[in-house]
Amino acid sequence: MFFFKPITEEVRLFQLKFTKQNKTKKFILASIFSCIAALFQAAGGLLPGIGLFLSPLATAPILLCSMFSIKNGIKSYFLTILLLLILQPTELIVFPFTTGLLGLGLGLAFHFFKNRLSIIATGAALLMLGIMSLLYLFHFPVLGPGFSDSFSINTVLIILLFSFLYCWFWVEITLIIFRRLALLN
Questions:
Q1: How would you write 23-76 as a 3-class SS string?
Q2: 115 forms bridges with which residues in the sheet?
Q3: Which of 10, 25, 68, 97 could join 18 via S-S bond, C-beta 3.0 to 4.6 A?
Q4: Residue 3, Cβ neighbours under 10 Å: how many?
Q5: In the prediction, which pLDDT does 8 show?
Q6: What is the pLDDT of residues 39-83, one digit of tens each?
Q7: Which residues are CB-neighbours of 100 under 8 A, at least 6 positions away?
Q8: Taking Cα atoms as reference points, which of 22, 28, 111, 17 lies closest to residue 63?
Q9: What residue intervals traverse the membrane (predicted)?
Q10: For residues 82 and 31, what is the distance between their CA atoms, to the nearest angstrom?
Q11: What's the predicted TM-score (pTM) here?
């Protein structure tokens, strides 16, 4: 079955190449990824309309950085939070619980698991946990006015389905990126 197929070896090869880099290059790459993620996330508040389409792309830099190295992925995640504090403080509640957590979680899952289903399930669980925390714990309307902040099993099922499909999308996009990068080497 498609979900049980192991991920390609390109990811493992890039992780091995990254570990051979010196600390300075790793730190610079993590900071560049953080800047890109902060700009994408801040676009949601700075550019009305088009920024809402750019904001979900903040997942990609954190995901790629944490796929290369767990330690640098965590650094990049927290550095992006600090940059958002300066650039767009209103996005500070959304990034750590949704796009940033998803990128970090999927990147870590690529390190620990080898098949798609495990990676997707890990990312979906973290994204669902983040969205539900914002919605039910902090009463932040992350899903907009269409969903209330009172607990509903229908809302939870919708969040679960969305999280799984969204994580599946990011895993496939990431694998395509790594295949393209492998062709360049």
A1: HHHHHHHHHHHHHHHHHHHHHHHHCCCHHHHHHHHHHHHHHHHHHHCHHHHHHH
A2: 6
A3: 68
A4: 12
A5: 63
A6: 999 998 888 888 889 999 999 999 999 988 889 999 999 999 999
A7: 37, 41, 58, 59, 62, 77, 80, 81
A8: 111
A9: 27-44, 117-139, 151-171
A10: 11
A11: 0.89
